[in-house]
Amino acid sequence: MENFFKVCLTVLTIWNSFGTEMIIVIAEVRSSGCSYFVFQQPAYPRDCREVSNACSSTHNTSGVYLIKPDSYPEPFEAYCDNDLDAGGWTVLQRRRLDSVNFNRSWKDFRNGFGFLGSEFWIGNEKIAYLTNQKRYQLRMDFENIDRETYFVTYDDFRISDAWGKYYISSLGTFVISDESKIEWCPASEIFSNETCERTCDDPDTCISATSRTETEQCVCVGDYLRQQEQCIPLNQCNCFVVEKESVLTEGKYYINSRCTRKSTCRNNQLIIDQSYQCSEHATCDERNGVRKCYCIDGYEGDGVTCTLIPKDCYELYVSGTLSDGVYTIYPNGWPHGIQVYCEMESNGGGWTVFQRRSSASVDFYRGWLDYKNGFGNKNQDHWLGNKYIHSLTNQKTYKLRIDLRDSASSSYYAVYSTFSINNEADKYRLSIGSHSRGNTGYDDLYYSNNKQFSTKDRDNDGWSKYDCAERHRGAWWFYYYYHCRGYYSASECRSYCQQSINCELFPDGRDNCAYCAYSHLNGDYDGSTQGTNIYWYTYSDSDTLDSYGCSLQYTDMKIRPV
Fold first, then answer.
1. Which one-letter DSSP state was computed for residue 449?
2. I want to staple 26 with a disulfide (CB 3.0 to 4.6 A). Which of 88, 105, 168, 439 is the partner?
3. How far apart (Å, rounded) are the C-alpha atoms in residues 164 and 393?
4. What is the per-residue pLDDT across 478-487, written as a single tens digit (0 to 9) for each?
5. What is the pTM of this model?
6. Residue 146: how many CB atoms within 10 A of its CB?
7. Phi, psi of 52, rounded to the nearest 5 degrees
8. What average pLDDT does range 13-28 have in this prediction?
9. Based on the number of CB atoms within 10 Å of its own CB, is 249 exposed (0-12), middle (13-18) or buried (19 or more)?
10. Do the bridges between strand 435-436 and strand 430-432 make them parallel or antiparallel, or are there none, so unpaired?
11. Rounded CA gap, 523 and 533, in Å?
């Protein structure tokens, strides 16, 4: 039975600046034109030489022909080069125009890709069947940038099958046509236009293409890095870390998985610190790709040494700070810290002071922003600032202690089980717990509980008739409480309002007076006008005329965790 084969002739003569062909020499037969040939034989030609032999009566031209190597399932098209020497070359690969991407997968190289008339790879599976049916010679032709041509040959070329991963099982004797035209690369380097050559000194950075003096040159690739003029394996670089399986750049470090060893690259040498160990206040962790010792919450440092980040004076106290003074603490929301006065030497220590009055040196008759941000000298008279007091008192549960001293140097105190103020949106509303009387007498903050803060320019006292902060010349958690004419006649109020012991009362005309709170510790220090001074309505249980807190010379307000 006769088999018919179509011969489609294609010739490509355009080359780019550097092209290659990998071709197998088979036979010497040429033909002309594009024709149909009838092969009067029971099988397809196995390679381009047999194609040539089958058409010996004609002059074959280079082009695409059908071939079928022994045992290959189906015939396939191959490009036969009949213009080279005596012809009969089966072309395995051609690269000329860079029009076909050769950066491909294993599957692509197994099956083949590209266009037989231009650039292509015939496929490893086809090459394996081809080269294992006869003895073949391999020829590789090159043209360099100067359009000079040369070639190399191997007289016995064979590759294994897919099971052997197509390794080259035979090459035979090597011959080169003109050795002067070939630039040989040292071992472990290849001749390439690759721009991602790396160095031992900086393994993370590719060499810039702009630093090239030539389009192509010998480069280190894969697991080889350049060290000075040599191309060496990655693990021979001076700062190679075995556990990391990579090289450190100058000044960088690597810490092992248990955080017990630190390796640092210094002066192109690997320095290993076997004493590296996490602080008792740190944990070994990997964050953002960096493994090291990290201080736990509430501490700061490099992980080997961790210093407490105190949220209040009490945390400083329990860490061993036992002297009174100004310290930096870090309440929630204040990562850069704030300065506060810490009372460490009395009343059990660990108190964070937010108000002190001891002289007339600091004016407390101020507006909303001053009371929000704070003012005065932390070592002396001051108001810490409502925004800080809010952050402090809402990070834990705190108790409040108020200390008072009068002109006779008698001391008094009151303690509240809890104390906090809300945020500015709620106008720093006060919240206090139960009162421990101490020796101040009445609970003089009781009616201030759940009231908003008022200043001379922010009237939040809820009493439309009066601006309590203005009348009392200070700022406090004021509220409507007492108005003399609401209880007594004009003549009775005239006498009552003018009594000096009633220092909390501010006058309201000739026959009336009022007050807005049982206590007010932010009034005028001297209190030359009645109702404007510092007062605590009573600081003893006695009912003598001097039991009203009209002669206070010292006050402070402070908190400590419950």
1. T
2. 88
3. 74
4. 998 888 999 9
5. 0.57
6. 8
7. -65, -40
8. 33
9. middle
10. unpaired
11. 5
Alpha carbons 214 and 228: distance in angstroms, whole number: 19
Higher pLDDT, residue 53 or 325:
325
Q: What is the C-alpha to C-alpha distance for residues 184 and 167, in angstroms, rounded to an integer?
A: 23
Which tokens go with 18?
A: 């550097």
Mean pLDDT calculated for residue range 419-432? 98
Cβ distance 517 to 468 under 8 Å? yes
Distance from C-alpha of 499 to C-alpha of 489, rounded to nearest angstrom: 16
Q: Which amino acid is at 181?
A: K
CA geometry: angle 346, 351, 352, nearest 5 deg = 140
Distance CA 462, CA 312 (A): 33
Burial of 276 (0-12, 13-18, 19+ CB in 10 A): buried
Give the confidence band of 76 by pLDDT, cuts at 50, 70, 90.
very high
Indicate the pLDDT class of residue 24, thresholds 50, 70 and 90: very low
Closest of 486, 418, 425 to residue 460, by C-alpha: 425
List Cβ<8 Å contacts ≥24 apart for 107-110.
110/162, 110/166
| Structure tokens that stand for 189 in this block | 């380097």
Could you tell me the pLDDT band of residue 31, with boundaries at 50, 70 and 90? very low
| Contact predicate 19/95, CB 8 Å | yes
Distance CA 77, CA 442 (A): 108
Dihedral (C-alpha) 44, 50, 54, 56: value to the nearest 10 degrees?
170
Instruction: Report the mean per-residue pLDDT for the chain.
Output: 86
Structure token digits, residue 389: 């007091």
- Residues pairing with 189 in the sheet: 220
What's the rounded mean pLDDT across residues 467-485?
Answer: 93
DSSP E strand stretches across 375-429: 375-376, 382-383, 398-406, 411-416, 419-421
What number of residues does the chain have? 562
Tokens of 161: 């099958």
451 near 426, Cβ under 8 Å?
no
What does the buried/exposed string (b/e) look like for 376-410 if buried means 16 or more CB atoms within 10 Å of the residue's CB? bebeebbbbbbbbbbbbbbebebbbbbbbbbeeee
- Give the C-alpha separation, 141 to 184, whole Å: 16
Please give the Cα distance from 192 to 209 (Å, whole number).
Answer: 12
Measured distance between the N- and C-terminal CA atoms of the chain, rounded to whole angstroms? 106
* Spatial distance between the Cα atoms of 17 and 484, rounded to a whole number of angstroms: 107
Percentage above 90 pLDDT, the chain: 65
493 by DSSP, 3-state: which?
helix
**Contact assessment for residue 66 and residue 5, using Cβ atoms and an 8 Å cutoff:** yes
pLDDT reported for residue 465: 87
- Dihedral of alpha carbons 424, 430, 433, 439, sign: positive
Helix (H) or strand (E) holding 550: none
- Predicted local distance difference test score (pLDDT) of residue 1: 28
The strand pairing partners of 411, in sequence order, are 405
HSE on the CB side for 279, CA within 13 Å? 16
What whole-number distance in Å separates Cα of residue 534 and Cα of residue 356? 12
